[in-house]
Amino acid sequence: MKKYIFISPEGTTEAPNSTYEVNNMQVIGIVENVDNEDQALIKLLIENEWIIDAEYNIAEFICYEIL
Length: 67
Known about the structure:
The chain is built from two helices and five strands; from the N terminus they run E-E-E-E-H-H-E. The protein is of the alpha+beta class. It has a three-stranded antiparallel sheet, with helices on one face. A two-stranded antiparallel ribbon has the order 2-3. A hairpin with a 6-residue loop joins strand 2 (12-14) and strand 3.
């Protein structure tokens, strides 16, 4: 079974000096015990309903297998 991490380019964060908005990549989640990326995405969305509620564009997600 494999393990995957999902990252999104959407969103921003605030710098400690709150006058700056910082573009960044956000870790959305890590999924374990799946056979492939498609299964990982499905499991990620089932286990984390907030992703849809927060209106992330899942087509923008970047997925990496963690070795």
